[in-house]
Amino acid sequence: MMEASDTEEFGVHAGAPIGGSNELLDVGQEDNQMEEFLGPQAEYNEEEEERKYYRRKRLGVIKNVLAASFGAMIVYSVYMGLLQMQLILHYDMTYREVKYSNLGLEDIDRKMLMGINVTPIISLLYTPVLIRFLGTKWMMFLASGIYALFVSTNYWERYYTLVPSAAAIGVAIVPFWASLGNYITRMAQQYYEYVNYREEHVQEQKKLPKGACHRYIIVFQSVFSSIFNLSFVFAEFPMRFVLNGHLNTNKHILHSVKTCGANITGLIPGFNTTILERLPRSMLLIEVESILMGFAFLAMIIFLLLCGAAYRPTEEIDLRSIGWGNIFQLPFKHLRDYRLRLLCPFFIYSGFETMFAVTGFSLSYGVCVLGLDKLWLLIVVYGLSCSVFSSLSLSLLYFPRWVCLVAGAAVHVTLIVVLLALPLRPNNPEMLGPLLVISALWGLGSALNKTGVSTVLGLLYAEEKERLDFVYAIYHWWQAIAIFIVYLWSNLPMRAKLSILLATLLVACYCYWLMERRLLKKVSFRLPRIPRPRHKVKGYRYLEEDNSDESGSENSDGEEEDGKGDGAEELDREGGGGDQHAASGDSSPAAARRAAEVHHRRRDNVQAKEGESEERPGG
Question: Which residues contact residue 472 at a Cβ distance below 8 angstroms, ignoring those fewer than 6 apart?
C-alpha cells in the first residue's frame, strides 16, 4: 500500500512535468522543421541551379536566332513570290484587258516599283530613330506587318491600294534589315555572356574583350544566311505550281526575240506581250493570295512570340535616353570611320549582284534562252546554292576574315567575264545545263559575298553594342541605293551593266584591301562619341532613390554635385553599368544574391546617415 501510494504520489507529481516536456519537445521539433525549411537545403546546389539557368538562357538565344531567320525567310518568300506572280500577270495584255479593262495596270506597276525602290533613299534619316523608339524586336514585327499589308492589298488591285502599300514596303525595307543584322549580332553577344557568366566583366556588364564573341557572330550569321536564302526557293512555288500551267509555248513567247545575253539592250527586246495561253481563274488567284496571307501572318506571330528582346530593359532605356537629335545625327557621324567608308563599295556591290541575279541574269540570259517556264528552275538553283554555300562562312573560324569576300569576288569576276563572252541565241534548250551551272556558281559567290559582308561588319563592331543599329542601317542603306540604281539602269545595254558590276567589284576589293592594310598598321579610326544617357528628368518615370522630391532651390551647390555624379556615372557606365543594371537585367540565382547584397548595403548606409543626423547637437 505504501508503494502504491508512493507510486501514485510520484505519478501525480510527475505528471505535469512530463506533459510540459512533451510540449517543449513539440516546440523544439517545430523549430527544427522551420530551420530545415528556411535554412540551406542539403539537396540544393546553387552552382548546379545557376548552370541550368544559363543553359536555358543559351537555348533561348538559339531559339531567337532560328525564329528571326525563319521569320525573315517566310516574309521574303511571300513578298517575292507574290510580286513575281503579280508582275507576270499584269504584263500579259489579255489579262489586263479582260480582268481590268482600262484600269492601267502597267502604269500602276511602274509606280509600285518606283515606290519600292525610290522610298528607301531617305531611309537613313529615320531608320535609327524608328529602331530605338520601337526596339529591335518590335521593329521586325512592325515591318513584317507592312509586308502582310502589301499581300492583303492584292485582293483588290487598285491604284489607291497597291501604290501606297508598295511605298510602305519601301519605307520598311532598311529598318527591317538593319534590325535583323543588329538582332543576330546581339544574340551572339548574349550567347557569349551566357557561356561566360562567371567572368567578372560579364557580371559587372563591362565592355566585352576584343574578339571575345567573334566565333558566335560567325556561326549565327552563317545560320541566318543559310535559312534566309531558302526564301528564293519558296518564292517560286506560285510560279511553279500555278502560273506554269497557264503559259504559252516558248515558240510563241520568244517569237520576235532576235538575240540574248550580252548583246541585248534592256531586259528582253521583242518579248511577246501575250504570255498566257489561258487566264487563271479568279478563285484560284484568291486561294493563292490567301495562302500567302496566312504565311505572312505566321511570320508576324513568329517575330512576336518566339523572338526575345535584343537588349535588357535598362539598356533599351539607355539607348533612347541619349536624345533623339543625337540618334538622328549619329549615322552620318559614323561615316567618319574609315572602316565603314572603305566597306561602302562592297555594300553597293552586294545590292548590285543580288538584283542582277534575279532580274538581269534570270531574264536576259535564262528566260531569253530557255523560255519563261524555266524561270523558276534558275531561281531555285540560285537560292539552294546560296543557302548551301552560306555555310562556307564558317571557315572564318579558322581563316582570316577576308577569305569569304575575296573568294566570292574571284568567283563573280570569272562569271562576269564568261557572261560577257558567252554567245547565246533565243529558244535554245541545249543551254539549260550551262546556265544552271552559272546560276549555281553565282549563288556561291553571292553567299560568300553577303554572308562575308555581314560577318565582317559584325566582327569590326562586335564590342560596340550601342552602335550596331547605326552600322547596319548604313550598310543596308547603301544596298538600297544600289537597288535603286539597278532599277534605273533597266534599259541600259547588258554589256554596260556587266561592266558596271565588274568595275564596282574591283573597286570594292581595292578599298577592302586598303582597310585591312590600315588595320594591320594599327591606324586609329574615328568613332563618334555617343552621349551619356540622362535619366534624371522632371517627370514621374525616373525618380531619385534617396530623395525623389529634391529640388534645385534646396541645395545651393546642386550643380556641382550633379556634375560630380555625372562623371562618376559615366565612369561606371564605361566600366559596364552599375549593380542596379546587373540586378534588374538578370534573374539568375547569383544575380539575385548580388541584388540582395546591394540592397543591404544601401539600407545600412541609410541607417548610418540617420544615426549621424541624430547624434548632431541641436539635431
Answer: 177, 178, 179, 181, 182, 185, 457
What domain range includes position 218?
49-521
Quote the number of domains for the chain.
1
Domain assignment present for residue 274? The answer is yes
pLDDT tens for 568-588 read 333 333 333 344 444 344 555
Nearest residue to 293 via CA among 86, 78, 77: 78
Contact 458, 411 (CB under 8 A): no
Q: What is the model's pTM?
A: 0.80
Collect all residues with Cβ–Cβ distance below 8 Å to 37 and sequence separation of at least 6. Answer: none
Q: What is the CATH number of the domain that holds 117?
A: 1.20.1250.20
Residue 14 lies inside a defined structural domain of this protein? no
Q: How many residues does the chain have?
A: 619
Question: Would you call 247 helix, strand, or coil by DSSP?
Answer: strand
pLDDT grade for 159, boundaries at 50, 70 and 90: confident
**Does the pLDDT at position 546 exceed 50?**
no
pLDDT tens by residue, 419-478: 999 888 898 889 999 999 999 999 999 999 999 999 999 999 988 888 898 999 999 999
CA 535 to CA 541: how far, in whole Å?
9
Angle at 227 between CA 222 and CA 230, to 5 degrees: 130
Domain contains 494:
yes
Residues 214, 346: Cα–Cα separation, whole Å: 21
580, part of any domain: no
Distance in angstroms (rounded) separating the CA atoms of residues 126 and 131? 9
Long-range contacts of 513-516, Cβ-Cβ distance < 8 Å, separation of 24 or more: 514/342, 515/338, 515/339, 515/342, 515/343, 516/402
